[in-house]
Amino acid sequence: MHEIAEFLSVQPPFDTLGDDELAEVAAAIEIEFAAAGTIILEQDVATPQHAWVVRRGSVELLDGQHVVDLLGEGEMFGHAALLSEWPTALAVRAYEDTLCYRIPADVIRPVLGRPAALRFAARSLAGRYEMRRPEIDPLSTRVIDPAHKLVGDLLRGPAVIAAPSMSVRAAAELMVEAGSTSLLVDLGDGFGIVTDRDLRTRVVAAGAAPETPVSEVMTTPARTISADATGADALFEMLDRGVRHLPVLDAARNVVGVISDTDLLAVETRTPFHLRRAIGVAASVDEVVAAARRLPATIIALHDARAAAGSIGRVIATVNDALTRRLIELAEAELGPPPVRYTWLALGSIARREAFPSSDQDSAIAWEGDGEDAEVAAAVRAIAARVVDGLERCGIPACPNGAVASKPLFSRSLGRWESAARSWLEDPDQTKALILTSVLIDGRPVWAADVAAGRLARVFAGAPDHPLLLHRLGVFAIAHRVPTGFFRDFVVSDDGRRRGTLDIKSGGLVPVIDLARWAGMAAGAGAASTTARLDAAEAAGTLPSEEVATLRVAFELFTDLRMQHQVAALREGRAPDDSIDPKRLEPLTRRYLKNAFQAVGQVQRTVANSMGLRPR
Length: 616
Description:
By secondary structure, the chain is of the alpha+beta class. The chain contains 23 helices and 25 strands. The strands form eight sheets. The chain has a four-stranded antiparallel beta sheet.
């Protein structure tokens, strides 16, 4: 038993147990041996009465006959079905001769029910098993998920590099010889890039001469990515930029290769690339709308592929960006460009890249200049109105509170935006100052970022120098109270009232998002995701590390539960919403939600006490 306890003590979630508790678990464990090829746990059977921890060897997770994952020493299986109280989603087969610790359900459930095990539980409830054939490291027999591999490790070979004067004929021959779909053009102070698609569209289809220099058909500058970024980072950079190749740079900024979308097919389904492409080539608003109708199916496909909820949210935000940009291009083609340049800003969850199927459109627009020229304002707002209307036709409703770029309150010259933002910082008690600050600080440029992004960011970077603003934002951050838990089939709010549904957005996510925004602003962090703001708050000390960890875990759990709920609505052809029926939650899920609510509530109370506030 001592050996078992010692082994478990460094494995999650057992690493949260004290010595006596570990000893009790170890005493209840049964040792099970399975020869290679033996089925340990069948697929689609009733909720198992045990969970297993691999002590030596490894096991395969099977969807039918398809291997979807491989677990090694210290990893647990069977517990996900115990947590959800559903039949087992996958079969488990010994990949090699394997020794397991088998733990009875009544012993493992209390372990998984501890608040300290919340992160492990959140991930288990998500059931994030990779549903594609995994890459196996033959030395460690562990699955290597390309989403978590470094980009440098995903490269298939060195980059093909040419001088700007090389002919397209010679470039094509060089690419064929190297088996590459791209070629980099060395410009001395950077790189251009020529892809096989460029050769088809800019040379063959355009009738260009074979001796045309590659400098005339390249794209410049080529977007790059660091070799120590992850495969998932590369995927989202490609989706964001609408490209399918990224030169990879080492720490010394030297090119070490080029990663393409085909190298990342094991990271996500390719559907988002196809959708992004369809939007980019849409020749009319009707075609943009038709392309957008594919988004729900894309979301369902990503969820079925066991993509993390946060990753799906980033894809939704990326698609929203692509729709916005294409609608702007079509509006300008029809109405003519305005007389000044302007920046389109995404706001809200889209801006933070924390989007859901139900996310509406929140936006603002800022144009060059300091005054309010009526002619300029009318021209810019005419473009904005076309875009807002087009997004509504795409199934993305306008913010019900009017936070869209076609409204005068959210469309101003850059000078007027800066003046307004400074006034909010200096006098946060003026009408709507806190709300507008909270909304605009999320702003992320989608169109012509160089016009406004830097100047507005510099204004909000001064937030730490305005204690009254931070105090008011602290009050704002604790205004949305989380529930205290459940009573039978009711959600119990902090005032004791009982409701028949759980609003997972206002009762879960919003309190965490607001706390992160306040703490991030106090740390000088502007537009960023919720997790990035929490990181900044921890680094600056505006929130203690333990509270940051609590909020991260709760945010992960609430995000995953909300995404699962909304994807289920998409499958059934219903409009996604945030109202979850407590009767449909498994008992252990309720327990974890209650733990998360209580943990977030404690952070709110701690913040309130530290600022001399009284949470409502």
